[in-house]
Amino acid sequence: MGSAYAAQSSFKISDCRVVASGLNYPEGPVYCEDTGTVLVVEIGAGKLTRIYPDGSRPKETVATLGGGPNGAALGPDSAIYICNDGGFYIAQVPRTLPDGRTDTIQVAVCQPPNYTGGSIQRVGLDGAVSTLYSNFVAKDPTGASHTLPLRSPDDLVFDSAGGFWFTDWGKDRWRDRDITGVYYAKPDGSSIQEKIFPLKSPNGIGLSPDEKRLYVAESFTRRILYWELSAPGVILPNPKTMDGSYILTSSLPFAGCPDSMAVDEEGNLYSACFLPHGAEILSRGGIAVVSPEGETLDWIEIDAGDPDPLPSNLCFGGPDRRTAYITLDATGILVTCEMRVPGKRLAWAR
User: Fold this and answer.
1) Which end of the chain is more exposed for a tag (fewer CB within 10 A), N or C?
2) What is the pTM of this model?
């Protein structure tokens, strides 16, 4: 069978259906096949929330996590694993819409005074919350080992062997910013290893369907990189680059900043891109669909009513995995729209 994108690429506005509103900076959507519900984290509220897309029940709190839960994924034990960024200062930005109405959008901007430190958390089936990792060991250029804190874990993905990769976005302060990387860890809390360093604002992360590529989005450099993998948790470095990476794309539509991402069953990446056209708060964010060869196949501009410049993440769901659930940070909503190609079934989906 040929690809659904083989004929031509397109740039379009997609009408989206709002399935939840009133969320406090939502991220990390996870589709639950067994219930047809969607889990999201709320960074501003420090909690994990369940949403019923059919509207049969109101949204409900699954667990209170504290800090700033940022990414979420189902693990091999059916627990939910959380990247907790330790909290953000979320600014309330006023704006005037083209029709003259005024509103306020939310923008996460820097490390807050009540920052709690980054961590990886586990939410059991009973809702119990435990912390697996809050630091890691790294070697400096002399070979000496140092125990360092996680700064702002952002997004994670499990492989079929049961381990998970995650990014650390880092924190901004008044005059400086963290330089961070990518890590590989076991879900039982027994092992965490820094695998890639240094990176600038590593955000979304994903695995190709055959798990031979690890994709990482760098938001502020506005590009997506990848590394070849020889085994679970093992990078096969590019011999031509200093960090072993390959550039998938350094040119996203309208210079959007890539946030988190999903992968379809053909291996195409779906990157939620915020602030296209620069720091324009009246712009609509979108989803860039990028092939494994780095070609931009599609730009799906999100129209859910008023412009939302900050789409943050998406997952595939529904009976055929063609339904995309997209979190919109700035306006605190979860929207859904249909995609051409089914999403890749994640390793431990249930």
Assistant:
1) N
2) 0.96
Q: Are 171 and 111 in contact (CB under 8 A)?
A: yes
Closest C-alpha to 72, from 38, 30, 125: 30
Q: pLDDT class for 10, splitting at 50, 70, 90?
A: low
Give backbone dihedrals phi and psi of 17, rounded to 5 degrees, phi first: -100, 130
User: Given the structure tokens 């946030």, which residue do they identify?
Assistant: 259
State the pLDDT at residue 7.
Answer: 45
Q: Where are the alpha helices (DSSP H) in 84-243?
A: none
Rg of the Cα atoms in the chain:
19
The 3-state secondary structure of 87-101, one letter per residue: CCEEEEEEEECCCCC
Q: Is the pLDDT of residue 111 over 70?
A: yes
Q: Are 206 and 237 in contact (CB under 8 A)?
A: no
Q: pLDDT at residue 170 above 60?
A: yes
Domain residue extents for the chain: 10-338
Which CATH number applies to 10-338: 2.40.100.10, 3.40.350.10, 3.40.630.10, 2.120.10.30? 2.120.10.30
Distance separating alpha carbons of residues 294 and 171, to the nearest angstrom: 29
Task: Find out whether the peptide bond into 276 is cis, omega within 30 degrees of 0.
Answer: no
